């Protein structure tokens, strides 16, 4: 019995081991996924906010975890990819402190009403930010995306110097992990000896001009080739971009290091510029409808002056049946303040110069104008700063109020509108940058992804997935976060899949894709003040 | 040595099975060792479960069988397109069984059984890719059954009795593929209840046309366990009116069927050998949908999860050999068909068709007391399957990939007769 028992239990034990289930072709086995010509053991990602995982107007942990470089790196792990370190923020509040004082705003969240209907984005106030940019992180990071960085910033010494953050001379995000106060982003990247890199830079070289409504300078017009003298809302000169970009890639592609380059999407793909229509004034809105007769009666006099001054096309009229365009200031128009002052002298007396100045470059918006997302919060509201200004100029209080309704009586300021001339300036730069990026990719034998084509597809037809269609519709489309510019995790997943496809084509690799339906979109939260 | 070789062969050659859905066919050490046959085998008090009609043919006045098995189950999942793979936390289930019978007189025996024919314990890694369907589930049903058995003649007997069921459930899943709180923690719900009771019954008959041949029939009724006012706990919901739910506890109602099972079979004794065959029909067709209605929301079921099971069959073969006075060897095989239909393969009960291989032995310590040992190994084919009826914004979103399961269960028991 004893001898038999021993045998019996020995076999039992064998059976236990043998019964572990195993697949015929386990995905972690050899040859299922391959890196092809790539060495993915040390992937370093360079770029701006898009690369960092910035979303909802802020950088926070879950956004970083769902950044396209991190998604890529997780897929790479099945094909020889190494660890991927990110300079994670301290929380999911977004926002940041400098020496205890808040210098960057918290993230946006989507607010819902009592009936479960979305109201709109608002800044999250449920917790205080805890990331202090003066707390230096140790070690080096694979994700070197720096929110706010323009092309030339990656090679700018001192860009990560925390002492320069307050004065706007350095970047608060790079200050957290720059290896020294003098270093550059590119130097810290190269020092990591990447075996593979991605570079998506140049967006901010036009985007900050665009999101600011074109208030900056276009250095393709000024011909200024010295980026250190550029303002933050300027367009980088095409030649400066080409030269800086080539140098960045040259530094990264040293010794034949492989990589992938992404081009610059159209600003018009982003809900920041497509959400607010040029004609948002709806006569079905009772408060606006009530004002229409008075507005038209008031503008009738101005319209006569426009005609008399030879600019009848600037006439302003509000419809009682269809949506009307807002009144904007178009700085490309000839300023007719002087003529208007004379023409309005009879009706407005001593106030004529003030009124004339207000409408000297005014017109109603056209379908070719792009209103920024920020304008949605001000249109139809009384501009209190303007009221105070007018009162200061001696305008009676009541009249000052009447003249200060944003977009109705007070032309929307330049910063809220991208007029066609500004759009053209942006497009000229974008086309030139994209030509550079594609040429540099070709010249260096690197993989290339047209983020422009991808986002155009999202904006025009949407991209279907197992749970619906991703579009660029603000808040509900799934592709863009609540700042209207940066992607959601789902948008990042889409970018990651496009990159994987390009890498497979260029480098004979094979990678698993991600299911974009498993990636979230915007965050609902009512903890807002 | 020859006997040893025979033993080894038995153990190696033997194949056995489990059963589809959340049925756990481990209701007796001796039967288990013989492919879980027993509707026509007169051997021990395990008949309380397999066929109460047979109890009157047991030789002894008092028969007691107790046993327990440790079921080690493993399920692995992978999706090659997405490069994801997961494995369930190797859970150990411990079904118990306790049977006793007493011959009151020449034509009547009474018995009592406590057994656990239904249960499921599956734990996937929290927040895994299928977490919107299940993170973990633990179902258990304890059956308590008094039976009575009447000998109509030496050729024919009948038996049966009421069944008292005590059920419990603990089930957690995420509310959707993406819903989370501000920190990215996935919103989820746990439903939990225990001590849910319900009555059912079973009835059996046995026919012995010759001295060596027995035919058996047994039917166990369907029992639908209804949870009313169980505890549902929501966690990690966003602090928002976007979802009509709040963190914390509410009640839930749900119903889970424990399907009826019909068994017919035969056994044949020849010298030292016993051969047995059982056919089980499990009426899983009753399991159409798992609907959960939460108390905090006003109307209708809040979570509708179509299951659409079909009736299924199991085919069981068993063999017993009286090796020595003290040692009895057993082996068996069964084929168990899954009740899960294509497109309804949910990871909470990832069962496809399986082959079971069983073996075991009894060692008589004294003429009255024997130790019973059994094991079974359940082999599942690798299967590409999906659950296609999870809805997101009114659209069905499939979840699938390749699954492979296995189950292994060694068991020990004691048989006492007097």
- Within the largest sheet of chain B, what's the order of strands? 1-5-6-7-8-9-10-13-14-17-18-19-20-22
Indicate the mean pLDDT of chain B: 91
SS element count, helices of chain A: 19
The CATH topology of chain B is what? Answer: Porin
Query: Based on the structure given, which CATH architecture of chain B is correct?
Result: Beta Barrel
Number of domains of chain A: 2
How many runs of DSSP E, i.e. beta strands of chain B? 22
**CATH-defined superfamily of chain B:** Outer membrane protein transport protein (OMPP1/FadL/TodX)
Detailed description of the structure:
The complex is a heterodimer of chains A (529) and B (418). Chain A is α/β, with parallel strands linked by helices and 529 residues long. Chain A has two domains: 43-274 and 420-518, SGNH hydrolase (Rossmann fold, 3-Layer(aba) Sandwich), CATH 3.40.50.1110; 286-324 and 327-364 and 370-418, no CATH class. Helices cover 36% and strands 11% of the residues of chain A. Chain A contains 19 helices and 15 strands. Chain A has helices at 2-18, 49-52, 61-65, 68-76, 172-177, 185-191, 203-211, 219-222, 238-252, 271-274, 286-308, 337-343, 345-348, 352-359, 384-392, 397-402, 420-444, 451-460, 489-507; strands at residues 43-47, 94-98, 101-106, 108-112, 118-123, 143-145, 196-200, 258-262, 327-329, 362-364, 370-371, 417-418, 447-449, 463-465, 468-470. In chain A, the strands form six sheets. Chain A has a five-stranded parallel beta sheet, with helices on both faces. A two-stranded antiparallel sheet of chain A has the order 2-3. Chain A has a two-stranded antiparallel ribbon with strand order 4-5. In chain A, helix 4 crosses helix 19 (489-507), helix 7 packs antiparallel against helix 17 and helix 12 (337-343) packs across helix 14. The N and C termini of chain A lie far apart (79 Å). The model of chain A has no long low-confidence stretch (mean pLDDT 94). Chain B is mainly beta. Chain B has a single domain, classed as Beta Barrel (Porin), CATH 2.40.160. Helix content of chain B is 5%, strand content 58%. Chain B has helices spanning 2-13, 29-33, 47-50, and strands at 62-69, 71-79, 84-87, 91-93, 96-105, 108-123, 136-151, 156-174, 188-207, 213-220, 223-235, 248-258, 261-270, 273-282, 289-294, 303-306, 312-322, 327-336, 354-364, 369-380, 383-392, 395-417. Chain B has a 14-stranded antiparallel β-barrel. The radius of gyration of chain B is 23 Å and the shape is elongated. Residues 4-19 of chain B have low confidence and may be disordered. At the A-B interface, helix 1, helix 3 and strand 4 of A face helix 1, strand 2, strand 20 and strand 22 of B.
